[in-house]
Amino acid sequence: MVLFQAILDRFEGYPVEKLTGPLGVEFASILGSTANWQLDLKQYAAAETSYQKILQLVPQVEQLKQEGAKRLQANTYHQLGVVAREQSQWAQAERYYEQALQLSSEDSDRFEQASTYVLVGILEREREREQWTPAREYLLSALEIFADYLDHENMARTLRQLALLWQSSHDAELPAAIAPLLGASREEVEALLRKRLE
Q1: Averaged over 50-71, what is the pLDDT?
Q2: Is 1 helix (H, G, I), strand (E, B) or coil?
Q3: Which residues, other chains included, contact 129 with Cβ-Cβ below 8 Å and sequence gap of 6+?
Q4: What does the alpha-carbon distance between residue 125 and residue 190 come to, in Å, rounded to a whole number?
Q5: What is the pTM of this model?
Q6: Which residue has the higher pLDDT, 54 or 1?
Q7: CA atoms within 13 A of residue 122's CA, in its CB half-sphere
Q8: What is the DSSP letter of 43?
């Protein structure tokens, strides 16, 4: 972290006009790495500040405007949602996730949408409001997208979350909703969900 901080301090001393090109892209990358480390270390206030700096930087960097500004912003809001969720700031997490979903939708980034759907589904389940339907819909949407991408690792993670939801909600129809997404029978999905709960 000390090295990242030293690099960040140098970047923050640069005039804004120097950060409009490749140097700005590098700065955003270092900010992102720093924020991720801060999040991993549970330094939530510092992580939030670093992610917010990325959002402030994006409009200034011409190269980012051409090469995926919305994708970077969506990912940053996604991460801000994680920061808020980790601190049980449910409403704030939901707002950040909604911003991430809006941006990834505008950018037609279905994979990023799916990743955020999983987190919104977890958020809805964790909020203890027993509002199972939104969690169910978000997780099913994520599973469908991951299945389209044949991303077995993320499908497995999503199925784990669906299994936890099934256990909590006692939704007898959930396996039937999952079955066509996996090309499996209801009974096979029930067995799969039970296995994910072990």
Answers
A1: 85
A2: coil
A3: none
A4: 19
A5: 0.79
A6: 54
A7: 20
A8: -
| CA 110/CA 198 separation, integer angstroms | 30
Q: Is 59 exposed, middle or buried (0-12, 13-18, 19+ CB in 10 A)?
A: exposed
Half-sphere exposure of 75 (CA within 13 A, CB side): 16
Report residue 172: phi and psi, to 5°.
Answer: -65, -20
Three-state DSSP state, 5: helix
Q: For the beta carbon of residue 86, count every other beta carbon within 10 angstroms.
A: 13
Judged on CB neighbours under 10 Å (0-12, 13-18, 19+), 173 is exposed
Q: In this model, does residue 144 exceed pLDDT 80? A: yes
Q: Please list, in sequence order, all residues whose beta carbon lies within 8 angstroms of the beta carbon of residue 79, skipping any fewer than 6 positions away.
A: 35, 36, 39, 47, 51
- Crossing angle of helices 69-86 and 110-126, in 10° steps, is 10
Let me know: does 118 contact 139? Beta carbons within 8 Å.
yes
Tell me how far apart the alpha carbons of residues 65 and 153 are, in angstroms, rounded to a whole number: 31
Length of the chain: 198
